[in-house]
Task: structure prediction
Amino acid sequence: MRICVFCSAAELDEVYTAPAREFARLIGERGHTLVWGGSDAGLMKVMADGVRESGGRLVGVSVEFLQHTVRPEADEMIVTVSLAERKAQLLERADAIVVMVGGTGTLDEATEILELKKHGMHAKPVVVLNTAGFYDGLRQQMERMDIEGFLPLPLAELVVFADNSDQALKLLGA
Result:
């Protein structure tokens, strides 16, 4: 399975990096491919290192203005002109999407993927890996959107939340 992971390129606390290492290890050990933003920094590097060390394949999709941060030894590296093109390539090359901790870039990627899914533009599973309760607020907001009729399909058909790596992979069928 080609699993696209949206996550931060920032250097983060062990509360976030340890679970990311575990998730990356499981992806690699199970023979899956990591499709990610291509960066060799922060949580993106932690994920790529873990997948590579445990036997998985790496497919990066970067953007021209971040080309100086790309991981040199990825199995495949695509460099796009714009962030919009990058998001389209990430989605195209993935069988499933996992949203991990991150900032505004991660949130942008996640909301676009959910919007496209809402409109039937893809049917790929989307899992939010809610490490240390990072996305509790997002989960609450999305549940409210669902209850109050803002979503045209049930929330569980749009996105599911996982509290750990094993649960995330089970929800993906991986």
User: Anything to note?
Assistant: The first strand starts at residue 2 and ends at 6. DSSP finds seven helices and seven strands in the chain. The longest helix spans residues 14-29.
